[in-house]
Amino acid sequence: MKNLTKLLLFVLILAPMHFAEAVTPRKDLVIADLGQPQTNPWVINRHRFQECVARALNIKQILADDENMESKHVSQAESLISRQPDALVFNPLTSPAGAQVARLLERNRIPGMTAGRVVVADYDKEYKGQFLIGQMGTNLEAWGAAMAQAAIDAGHRKIAMIWNPKDVITTQYIWAGAQAVIDKTPGAKVIIEGRDRLSRETGIKYAEQYVARFNKGELDAIIVLGATAGLGTQFALEQAGRTEVDVITCDIDEQVAQHIRDGKLSFSIGGHWMGGGFALIHLYDYLHGFPIEDTQPDFSLIPVTAKTVDAYERQFLDSCVLTPNEIRNLSRVYNPDADLPGFIENFAKTWNQ
Amino acid sequence: MTIHEKTNEIKSQESGGLFQNLRNNGLSDPQTRTKMMERLRDNVPFIAITLVILLFWGISGDRFMSLRNWTFIAQQTPVLLLLAFALLLVVTTGSIDISVGSNLGFSAYMAALGMLWFGTMGFLVGIFAGVLIGILNGVIFSLFKISSFVTTLAMLIIVRAVLVIVSDGRSIYVSDQPMSNSNITSIEAKWLLDLGQFPHILYVSIAITFLLWVVYEKTIFGQQLKALGGNEKVLRLAGISVTWFKIQVFAAAGFMVGLASFINLARSGAATVQAGQMQELDAIAAVALGGTVLTGGHGSVLKTVVGALTLTIVANGLTIAGVPPSWSMIARGVLLIIAIAISLNRKQIDVVK
Amino acid sequence: MLDQQPILEVEDVSKSFGGVQALKSGSFKLSRGEVIAIIGANGAGKSSLIKIVAGVYKPDKGHITIKDTVIDPMHHNVGYMRQMGIEVVYQDLAIVPNMTAPYNLFLGRIPRKFGIFVDERKMRKKTEEVLAELKVKTVQSLSRPISEMSGGQQQSIAIGRAIAWGKEIVILDEPTAALGPNETKEVERVVHEIKDRGTAVILISHNLEQVFRLADRILVVHHGITSKEFQKTEVTIDELVKAITLG
Fold first, then answer.
1. Which stretches of chain B sit within 8 Å of chain A by CB?
2. Chain B: nearest CA to C201, how far in angstroms?
3. Pick among A255, A262, A273, A314 to test the B interface (most B CBs inside 10 A)
4. Which of A196, A212, A253 lies closest to B72 in CB terms?
5. Which pLDDT score, from 0 to 100, does residue A290 have?
6. pTM of the predicted structure, to 2 decimals
7. What is the pLDDT of residue B108?
8. Residue B320 is nearest to which of A200, A213, A318, comparing CB atoms?
C-alpha cells in the first residue's frame, strides 16, 4: 500500500518528464561486498563511499573481508553467497581468486561486479559467463604513469621506488605504467628498487638505506606505492635532513593532504576507491532490468598537488563526495538519461578543471 | 634370569668402555678438535657479524661504513632487538610466541591512544596493553594447556583484528607541533620523536639491554627460565609451580613487546594498523642467529643483540650494495641456515621436529 | 647403630586404577640408617608402593606412619610427604641437565638476595660442603651445566639434595640403571655415606648384586603383595630370584 502511494507520487512528480521509463525503485535489495581488511586508507574510503551509495539507493550491504589471503577470498565469497544476496561486489585479491568467485557467481546465478581489480584483462573478449556483469576497474597503468609523470614533470631523473613484492600482480601493473613513462624519458632511470610488505616502518627502513647509499644529488625522488609507506618515507627523509629528495605517492588521507599542503609531499593520486560505489550503482540498475552499457569502465585517478589539495580534501575526505540526489541521478532507475560510464570516465578530467 | 643377563650386559659394557678410553687417550687429536669446534660454535654470532660487516665494507666502502649509515643501523635495530628479547624469554623456556608482531601494532596504538586521552604518561597504557596480551597468551597456554605455537598463532590473528576494530584503520600521528588540521588524529610530543632518534634511541636500548641482562643472568626468574627449558618435569617434581611461572614468562615477554611498541611509536612517528606485521619472523630469526636453540634451556642476551644487529646490517648492506630485493631475501634466508647449522651441536640432538 | 624405633611404617596399603588392582597389600617398616631394597618383577606393584610413599598416589586403604605421625589421607600428596622428610630421586628425572650443580642441589629452594637475585656465593659454598661431605670429587667447574659431569656425579648431587635439606627418608628409584660401572660405584659409595649419617633409604633396583651390596633388608613384591622379607645375611641370590618369580 505504502509502495503504491510512493509509486503514485513518483508518477505524479517525475512521470511528466520520463513517463516511458518509469521503474519502481526496490527497497529490499541486499548486496554483499567482499574486499580486503581495513588496514589502509583506500579500503576504508571505498567502504565509506560505497555506504553512501547504498544509503542513497536503499541497499542493505553485507560486508566481509579476505584477510589478504587468496584461500580466504574464495571461502568468504562462498559464505556470502550462501546468504543469498541479490548481488555481490568484490575486489579480487588476485586474478585467480577472482576467477573462482566469478565461477561461484555463475553456478549460483547471482550477479556480481568487481570493484578495483579485475578478473580478466578484457571483459568483452575474455569473459564467457553472464553473471559477472562487468568489471569496475581502475586504470592501473594510467595510475602508475601519472605517478611517474609527476616525478618527471618536477624535473626528477634519478628515481628510487618502494613497492609491493612482485607477486602482488595488480601493483605490478601499476609499476609497469610508471616504468613505461620513465623508460621513454631521456636521462630518467630507476636507480634502486625496494620491494617489501608495505607499512610505515618499511617506508622508513628503505628511505634510510637509500639515503645511506646515495649522497646528495645522486637521488632525486622516491616513488612509493601507498600513503602509509609513503608517509614513513617522507618522515625518514625529514629526520635524516634529506628533504631535497621528493616523495611521490598515492592514496590521500588527511595526513597526506596536510603534507601536500605543507609542501612536504609534492604529489599523490587517489579516488580509485570510488569504484566500489560505482559498481553498486551498476548492479542496482542491472537488478532493475537495465542492461549493462559499459562492461568495463575504467576509473582514472585524481592527481592531487598543493594547488588542488584543499578542494580534494573538501570534497573527498570525510564526506560522501556526491549527495544522495547526485548518486540517484547516476542510476537509470531514477534518471533514464543517466550516463554512469561517461561520468566515471570524465570524473577525473572534470574534477581537475 | 633376566637379572643375571642385565648384570652381564653391564659387565660387557665395562670392557667396551675401557677400550674406548684407551683409544681416546691414544689419540688426543679428536678431543682437541671437538674443543675447538665447541669454541667456534659458541662464537658463531660474533664471527658472523664480523664477516658480514667486512663483506659489506668491501663491497660498498664508505657508503656502508659511514657514520650516517651506522646511525641508521642504530635506529633500525632497537625495535627488532626488543622483540627478539621478548622471544628470547619465551624461547629459553622451550616455548614460542609468534604474536609479538600483532602485539607490537596493538600496544603502539594503545600507547598513542593513551597519550591522546591522558597526556604524556598515557604511553603507559601501551606498555600495559603489551603485558595484558602477554598474560592472555600465558593463561591460555599454561592453564588450558594449548601449545604455545597454537595459542600465539590465534592471538596473532585476534590481536591484529582488535587493532583494526579499535583504530578503524586510522593512524594516530606523533608531531612536534600542534596540528592545524583537526581531521588528523595526532599527539603533540616532541620528546617522543626525539626519543626515536639517534642517539637517544641507542641509550634507551642499551639501558633496556643491561636490565634484561641482569634479569636473565642474575635473578631467580632468569634462572628459572633456563631450568624450565631444561626439564619441566623435574621442576614439577621439585614442587615448583610451573603453571604460574609460565604465565609470568609470557607477561614478561609482553612487557618487552610493550617497550618495543613504544620505541616503534617514537621511531616511526605514528601508530598504524600495519605496524609489526611479519615482525615476529625477523625476531625469531634474530634470536636464532644469536645462537639460542628454539628447544630451550640456553640463551644469551648479548648474542641476541648480535643476532638482531646482524639481521639489520645484512638487510641494510644488501640494499646499499644494490642487490635486487628477491635476491636479498634469499641471502638472508641462507645466512640464517648457515649460522644455525654451524652453531648446533648435532651430536647432542637425536630428534628434530 | 640401627635405631629400633621405625621412622616409616607402611601398613597394608592398596591401590587400584579402574578395575586393575596395582597393589593389593603393601606393608613394611624402615628405621634410621637402614637401607631397604624393594624388588619384584615388572608390574608386581613396586612402583605403586613407592609412589604411595612419595605421595604421588593416595592409597585406597591402609595407612602410613612417619615418625609416629599417621598421615591423614586428606594431606596425602607430594608436597606434604616432602615436608614430612621424604625425598625421591627418580632415575631420569633427578636433575635439570642444562643447569649447574649448585642449581640442582638447591632445586626449588634457591636462596635469594634482595628478594629477586640469586645468591650464587651461598649456593656454591653449600654445594662444596655437600660434595665434600659425600666425598664426591669434581673436576668440572661448578658454573658449568651439570650435564658436563659424569652420570655418577650427577646422581650423587641428586642424592646430595636429599641430605642437604635434612631429609630423613630417601627413595632411590633405579639410581644406577643408566650408569656405567665406575659411576655406579660412585653412587653406591654415596648411598653408604648417607646411610652412615642416619638417613633411611628405600632402594628400588633390578640389579641384585647391587641390592646385596647396599641393602640391609630386602622386600619382595609379588602380584601386588609384599610377600617376603629377608635379612641380607640370611638369603642367597637364587632364593631371591625364586621369590621374585614364584612369590
1. 60, 63-64, 66, 68-69, 72, 75-76, 79, 164, 168-171, 173, 179-181, 183-184, 197, 264, 267-270, 272-278, 315-316, 319-320, 322, 324-326
2. 19
3. A255
4. A212
5. 92
6. 0.81
7. 96
8. A213
Contacting partners of chain C (3+ CB pairs under 8 A): B
Q: Which three cell numbers stand for residue B39?
A: 669454541
> Interface pTM (ipTM) of the complex?
0.80
If 0-12 CB within 10 Å is exposed, 13-18 middle and 19+ buried, where does residue A179 land? middle
The SS3 of residue C59 is coil
One-letter amino acid of C41: A
Going B309 to B314 to B317 to B319, the CA torsion angle's sign is: negative
Could you give the 3-state DSSP secondary structure of residue A59? coil
Verify whether the Cβ–Cβ distance B227 to C180 is below 8 Å. Answer: no
The C-alpha cell at C225 is 603383595
Which of these, A347, A330, A301, A302, lies nearest to A52 by C-alpha position?
Answer: A330
Q: What is the SS3 assignment for B93-136?
A: CCCCCCCHHHHHHHHHHHHHHHHHHHCHHHHHHHHHHHHHHHHH
Considering only CB atoms, A39 lies closest to which of B60, B76, B169, namely: B169
CA–CA gap between residue A308 and residue A266 (Å, rounded): 11
pLDDT in tens, C163-212: 787 778 999 988 888 788 888 888 899 899 888 888 899 999 888 889 99
Whether the per-residue pLDDT at A17 is higher than 70: the answer is: no
Q: Are the beta carbons of A31 and A280 closer than 8 angstroms? A: yes
Question: How close, in Å, is residue C4 to chain B by CA atoms?
Answer: 31
The model's pLDDT over C76-94, given as tens digits with 9 standing for 90+, comes to 888 888 888 888 888 777 7
Structural domains in chain B, CATH included, are 44-344 (1.10.3470)
What cell was used for A181? 613513462
Low-confidence stretches of chain C (pLDDT beneath 70): 1-4, 139
Nearest Cα residue in chain C from B11 = C181
C-beta neighbour count of A221 within 10 angstroms: 24
B229: distance to nearest CA of chain C, Å? 8
CB B268 within 8 A of CB B193: no
Of the candidates A38, A209, A231, which has its C-beta nearest B320's C-beta? Answer: A209
> Can you tell me the distance from the alpha carbon of A320 to that of A42, in angstroms, rounded to the nearest whole number?
14
Which residues, in sequence order, are CB contacts of A202 under 8 Å at separation 6+?
A162, A194, A196, A229, A232
Q: How far is C109 from chain B (nearest CA, A)?
A: 9
- Spell out which residues of chain B touch residue A197, defining contact as CB-CB under 8 Å: 274, 277-278
Res. B57: pLDDT tops 50: yes
Smallest CA–CA distance, residue B313 to chain A, in Å, is 10
> Does the N-terminal peptide bond of residue C175 adopt cis geometry, omega within 30 degrees of 0?
no
Domains parsed from chain A with CATH numbers:
15-140+272-352 (3.40.50.2300), 141-270 (3.40.50.2300)
